[in-house]
Design a protein that fits this description.
Layout: H1 34-86, E1 88-89, E2 95-96, H2 98-107, E3 114-120, E4 125-128, H3 129-132, H4 158-168, H5 173-179, H6 183-191, E5 196-201, E6 207-215, E7 223-229, H7 232-281, H8 298-344, H9 351-387, E8 391-394, H10 395-409, E9 415-419, E10 426-429, H11 431-447, E11 456-466, E12 469-477, H12 512-522, E13 526-533, E14 539-549
Helix pairs in contact: 1-2, 1-7, 7-8, 8-9, 9-12, 10-11, 11-12
Length: 554
């Protein structure tokens, strides 16, 4: 039997690369992006915790500041009304009476965290609740050489000022103007009859919530009462402390998610990268890729693909080495015969013997030429298959054309019978190489057709399934002696020949079936040989079975 491809592991299906362990038929080829879901869920949860905490605390702080301003305004309006009634004089001109204003302020209840100041129309301090209650502000003097006493000396920690600077990006323009306003500017506005309020900064950098209300007995403004609350920074600090649990929880979740991603993504990828580097540096020695078949995610698919790829590369390297050895062996035989004939030719004493030696030399030269041609074609086949574009075509129509061309060209020999399928048999591939497969199978069947009687070669194509997917199957049957059971795989080995009796020696290179299997595998199909047996169990001929995936939508 002619033609073949080397099979190193007969126990493995010949149409699957070594080491290939794809999921069972019916499983999805690619799983859902579970790693993407895990990454998004973990980091999104941490971010959600932080955002919710910040929004909750920010909303609470804004509400507290607004409530404090409203409380100060209500209390200030009450004090301004009392002062307008009991500490103002309008005859001969509106004026604020300082002694009466201090007396009224002394009698009023002022909370511990609130400071009340009363200014007259000339913006001079008339009364101060801190002075009346014997409370004084203690301001540390700057070190010598660091600036005068009148300069701004921000005593707040650097981190607090950093956070304040970041927060300033989100303030409105009006809020920033109020923050830079001084107490004198605020009182000047109130002297004009306009109530002002907001959060402003003191010379030491701390913030104070203040409200300035004009004192108006009737229409004329005789003074201003200013209420200040100094606990805003303490409130913000406490709110930041309230934010700490949210930050800690978010940090813990982020760290755990990072560790999880490291364990489940970074470490396996690192293992694969190290194994790939070792394979590159191994110089052809087999390096086992990490086994990640248990993972049903993208990393598992990557590990499986790398494992299959390296095994395929190793198989290809082994095949190249074996191919080189087979080529050397096959070329050595005719060369040895030619050398022997050339050495014997000068010693031939008659013309008949010299003619026989020359015939041997010519036959071996033709054999060498045929071997070199087939070897060159086999070595270029993979590259040609990779470069040639695939197309959708009718496999049944291709078979019909090939059978008709054989019928037209042959005058004798076995009868060629083709049983077409009803309709079309659409596949996606390369019509030229697949036509070569069919011709090789027909030529092989013709070679083994019985010469002593009429016979036929039968081609049949029918619908089938392979690995749970639709496919088309071609069978080529002859009525020859069949194939020995132990050689059903050997016939596909390179340079394997088992010609029938009477066939000329050296007329076949033994590459036809090897090339056929190579082409079929490149199209994702499979090819194997079997014997046809009758009811009595005797072999009635050989059958070659080619299965090719159907085109999409078939």
């Amino acid at each position: 039997m002619a033609w073949g491809i080397a099979i190193r592991n007969p126990e493995r299906p010949s149409d699957e690369p070594a080491g290939m362990r794809w999921p069972k038929p019916g499983w999805p080829r690619w799983s859902a992006p579970r790693l993407a879901q895990i990454i998004l869920a973990a980091n999104g949860f941490a971010l959600l915790i932080l955002i919710v905490g910040m929004l909750a605390v920010s909303e609470t702080r804004r509400g507290l500041v607004d409530a404090k301003i409203d409380a100060l305004r209500a209390e200030g309006e009450l004090i301004a009304n009392v002062l307008a009634e009991g500490a103002a004089e309008s005859d001969p001109a509106p004026v604020l009476l300082g002694d009466e204003a201090r007396a009224i302020l002394r009698q009023l209840y002022v909370p511990q965290d609130v400071r009340v100041r009363i200014f007259d129309k000339g913006v001079r301090t008339v009364a101060d609740s801190h002075l009346l209650s014997s409370r004084f502000d203690v301001v540390p003097l700057p070190d010598i050489g660091e600036g005068g006493a009148g300069g701004v000396n921000d005593q707040r920690p650097v981190f607090t000022r950093f956070l304040e600077g970041i927060g300033g990006v989100f303030r409105t323009r009006e809020e920033r103007d109020v923050l830079r306003r001084s107490l004198r500017e605020e009182v000047d506005i109130a002297i004009l009859g306009q109530t002002t309020s907001g959060v402003r900064r003191q010379e030491d950098g701390t913030r104070v919530v203040s409200v300035s209300i004009p004192i108006q007995p009737v229409q004329a403004v005789v003074g201003v009462v200013t209420l200040e609350s100094f606990d805003l920074d303490a409130l913000i600090a406490s709110e930041r402390r309230a934010l700490l649990p949210f930050i800690v929880i978010a940090a813990v979740v982020t760290i755990l998610s990072s560790l999880m991603l490291t364990v489940f993504i970074a470490r396996p990828i690192r293992r694969l990268a190290v194994a790939a580097h070792e394979a590159r540096m191994a110089g052809g020695k087999r390096v086992e890729m990490p086994h990640l078949e248990g993972r049903r995610d993208e990393i598992g698919e990557l590990g499986l693909a790398l494992h299959a790829m390296t095994e395929a590369l190793y198989d290809r390297m082994d095949a190249i080495e074996q191919f080189a050895a087979d080529v050397a062996h096959e070329l050595k035989n005719p060369l040895t015969s030619i050398r022997s004939a050339v050495e014997t030719l000068p010693k031939a004493k008659d013309d008949e013997r010299r003619a026989r030696l020359l015939a041997v030399i010519q036959s071996d030269v033709k054999r060498l030429d045929r071997l070199i041609t087939d070897i060159s074609r086999a070595s270029r086949l993979d590259a040609e298959l990779a470069r040639e574009d695939t197309a959708r075509f009718d496999f049944a129509a291709l078979l019909k054309d090939i059978v008709e061309s054989y019928r037209d060209a042959r005058q004798s020999g076995p009868d060629l019978v083709f049983e077409p399928v009803a309709g079309s048999a659409m596949i996606e591939g390369r019509a030229g190489p697949l036509g070569q497969v069919v011709r090789n199978l027909i030529d092989n069947a013709v070679t083994f057709a019985p010469k002593d009687r009429a016979s036929r070669i039968k081609l049949r194509v029918f619908r089938d399934h392979r690995n749970g997917l639709p496919a088309w199957t071609l069978t080529v049957e002859d009525e020859g002696p069949g194939i020995p059971e132990e050689n059903l795989e050997t016939v596909f080995k390179r340079f394997y020949t088992d010609r029938p009796k009477g066939a000329a020696f050296g007329t076949h290179s033994g590459l036809g079936l090897a090339i056929a299997r190579q082409i079929v595998k490149a199209h994702g199909g499979a090819i194997h040989a079997e014997n046809r047996k009758g009811d009595d169990g005797h072999v009635r001929g050989a059958r070659f079975v080619v299965t090719l995936p159907a085109a999409r939508g078939e």
